[in-house]
Amino acid sequence: MAGRHRVTLIPGDGIGPEVSAGARLVLDAASPGIEWIERQAGSVALAEHGDLLPEETLDAIREARVAIKGPITTPVGSGFRSINVALRQGLDLFAAVRPARSLPGVPTRHGDVDLVVIRENTEDLYQGVEFAARSPQAEALREELRRLADFEIRPDAGVTLKPISIAGTRRVVRFAFEYSKANRRGTITLGHKAGIMPTSDGLFLRTAREDSIDRGDVEFEDMQIDHLTARLVREPGRFDVLLLPNLYGDIISDLCAGLVGGLGLIPGANIGWEYAVFEPVHGSAPDIAGKGVANPIAMILSGAMMLRHLGEPGGASAVEHAVDAVLEAGKVRTPDIGGSSSTMDVAEAIASALAR
Ligand code: NAD
Asked: Is 11 close to ligand 1, i.e. is its CB under 6 Å away?
């Protein structure tokens, strides 16, 4: 029986509003008890509120504790940080969860993929410790490094720092084990480059190995990130849960999307102790925005993850089965996976498959 839930909906920009409308249609059909609180972020928010991430949007998420969002464009080289990164850090959403599984009716090289990427979401090269080339701060940093470590950085170098902390690692490791136990996952594979970066990646690895938490029956192994990448493209069916620092997690989740048919199919969740924000892995896809052909499945499956989080596993499974049924039938699909249907055609087909 569907309960009542307050959920903040952030449609985003680019294809965001299109896939959000599709997801809302399906989620309303699967769980009629959702009360949507719509708030803006990104270019729409800038136009309406003069702020890319208005406080009222953050407040709405804090109040509802659960949000679902479409993608938001980050203008390249404009000097401001990604709103997505700001949102994850502002709400301390320290774990990104991105399941990738082979879907019926979507032909790919490997048919046996069923893995979950768990990505640390707040540290690493994405923490925003940036020193622009030739800035006074970069100059001061160069001097300090010379003094501390006799290390010479070129004067025209921009620098991004990679902090990885024990506390930040412990919580995502704990989360990965809790998730694996709850979802009957057998093995966690941690990816790293500890040989080259012993103080950051090495710390991530050592902390995960040594942390005394209840691991249940979950096996743990580690792999160099380059080796892991090669294994993933050759035999993805061998992997179960991948635990990765922020940057590797970003890259590997897109790789996993490619393994199962593309970005239009991969859902995601950003989870902290207090709040959860569900969103597809894909971005705002400016190349197809406004055409009504974006695949809504990634957003719809993000909604299924949200229903499970809200304590509605039945609704979540129903949405996932309806997506599988529509993909398997093969009649209604968007151009990215070889069809010619629109975003709303796909959403409507999934909503009607729910009822069957
Ligand atoms: P993208 O994911 O937007 O697009 C990459 C390719 O995949 C494009 O060819 C696009 O058409 C296709 N694609 C993506 N989603 C699709 C869908 N649902 N259906 C069909 N095709 C789809 O990546 P990008 O082009 O590198 O990024 C565009 C913008 O999105 C950038 O500003 C980036 O910063 C932002 N971005 C936002 C998020 C987020 O909000 N969480 C995530 C990633 C990128």
From this structure: no
For this structure, is 331 an active site residue? no
Q: How many CB atoms lie within 10 A of CB 120?
A: 27
Q: What is the pLDDT of residues 80-113, one digit of tens each?
A: 568 888 888 889 999 999 999 999 999 899 999 9
User: What residue has token string 């709405």?
Assistant: 60
Q: Distance from the CA of 282 to the center of ligand 1, in angstroms?
A: 4
The kind and range of the H/E element at 269 are strand 269-271
Confidence at residue 1, expressed as pLDDT on a 0 to 100 scale: 46
The one-letter code for the residue type at 34 is I
Tokens of 282: 């894909």
Active site residue 126: yes
Is the Cβ atom of 73 under 6 angstroms away from ligand 1? yes
Give the separation between CA 69 and CA 39, rounded to whole angstroms.
Answer: 10
Q: How far is the CA of 75 from the centre of ligand 1 (A)?
A: 12
Interval 121-173: pLDDT, tens: 999 998 889 999 999 999 999 999 999 989 999 999 999 999 999 999 999 99
| Maximum pairwise Cα distance, the chain | 70
